[in-house]
Amino acid sequence: MKTIVIAGGSGFLGQVLENYFTKIGYTVKILTRYPKKEYDVYWDANTLGKWTIVLEDSEALINLTGKSVDCRYTDKNKKEIYDSRINSTQILGKAIQLCEQPPKVWMNASTATIYRYSLDKKMTEINGEIGDDFSMNIAKSWEKEFNQFDTHKTRKIILRTSIVLGKNGGAFIPLKTLAKLGLGGNQGRGNQKVSFIHEKDFVRAVEFILNRPNLNGIFNVTVPNPTNNMILMKTIRKKIGMPFGLSHPKWLLKIGAKIIKTETELVLKSRNVIPERLLQNGFSFKHPTIETTISDLLN
Ligand SMILES: NC(=O)c1ccc[n+]([C@@H]2O[C@H](COP(=O)([O-])OP(=O)(O)OC[C@H]3O[C@@H](n4cnc5c(N)ncnc54)[C@H](OP(=O)(O)O)[C@@H]3O)[C@@H](O)[C@H]2O)c1
């Protein structure tokens, strides 16, 4: 049986991948600090241990480990956001190097947030401009740690994924809740670009890359045409039948973010990211627009 190992796979994206790959016949093993299910394997995301055995002869290792960035950026949280990503990447790299039959491919999460705030310049893998703030520097360190490993038998892929919209997790749930409460207007000016991807297309993109042994390196995993915050919120309101939605100017968002313990960056940053390499290699999206994405998720 073909095995896929997902480190940090107990969360939103890991569960989406596990469901899909299990349905099409793979055995999916999850590296987690809190094993609960049959194929969960204990690791501490930090040191080598018995867990390394599961990597032997696997089809793929997908690393999604990382403390959620949906929190206040206190020093303690910042350290945990950094350490959880860098340490897990480092220990997985070492574990691969110790394997006799290492995974055929190692995909490591990164983020489309690595590119700077942009209203007009489209950020591709080749031409995108990498920025310099807390989140962008985390992404840079994450990728640097990954890139330092020379795994000659294991193909390496960086997934610069945008906001994934899904039924059971991620950003869509709080946005839908806001809209239902009549609070789903623009966040900030509303003109900030929103790069997003439907959870099904995220999984399809991972499978697409998995099945093409010639592909290596960085992939932007996001729809071809970003929307903007105003259209995103308007579409959600329309699809749930809410005729109005209170907008949130920046100052109000700042207060709200403190109350619900998050950062305004998550909604105010303009993300204008293009999946050039997926498109060049022939990937086609089932849900390329915000209309079809939201309709499908509400179905
Ligand atoms: N969701 C998105 O829209 C999106 C977009 C771009 C990039 N990403 C990146 O993709 C990855 C997965 O995203 P997700 O939404 O699935 O995240 P998630 O639901 O928060 O899951 C992340 C997993 O990481 C592990 N983890 C959390 N804190 C940890 C810590 N301090 N030390 C070690 N492990 C820890 C947890 O596994 P255990 O508790 O079971 O050990 C958790 O299940 C993340 O790195 C995220 O930054 C996500």
Automatic annotation (TrEMBL):
InterPro entries: DUF1731, Epimerase_deHydtase, NAD(P)-bd_dom_sf, SDR39U1. Coiled coil: none annotated. Pfam families: DUF1731, Epimerase. Residues 4-221 form the NAD-dependent epimerase/dehydratase domain. Belongs to the NAD(P)-dependent epimerase/dehydratase family. SDR39U1 subfamily. This is TIGR01777 family oxidoreductase. Residues 249-297 form the DUF1731 domain. PANTHER family: EPIMERASE FAMILY PROTEIN SDR39U1, SUGAR NUCLEOTIDE EPIMERASE RELATED. It comes from Aureibaculum flavum.
